[in-house]
Backbone:
């Protein structure tokens, strides 16, 4: 908001992590939006804190939200760390979306991850 002092990335990460652990994707998206609005760039640690949320979304068949969160990361110019990719592969595998799991794995390998 106008005239507001932005929080530190560490504080935002704490909120992202808490909402991720609680399985609250809409709140995670709101925090990420607030970060963008206030000019605080999410970092790799921000997205790494999404791993629990990705897993819970996969279990609840809300894969579009998981994919959306990863798109937000890409839009921020950040490549997901290996553990985020691995969580997404697990989510797709559990949902029996093996083609998507393979595409994520291929992307990991192209980025030099295993």
Residues:
């Amino acid at each position: 908001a106008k005239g507001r002092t932005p929080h530190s990335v560490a504080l935002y990460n704490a909120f992202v992590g808490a909402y991720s652990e609680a399985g609250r994707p809409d709140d995670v998206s709101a925090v990420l939006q607030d970060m963008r609005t206030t000019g605080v760039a999410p970092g790799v640690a921000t997205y790494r804190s999404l791993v629990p949320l990705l897993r819970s979304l996969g279990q609840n068949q809300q894969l579009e939200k998981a994919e959306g969160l990863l798109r937000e990361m890409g839009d921020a110019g950040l490549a997901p760390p290996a553990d985020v990719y691995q969580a997404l592969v697990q989510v797709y595998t559990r949902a029996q979306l093996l083609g998507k799991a393979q595409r994520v794995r291929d992307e990991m390998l192209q980025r030099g991850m295993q």
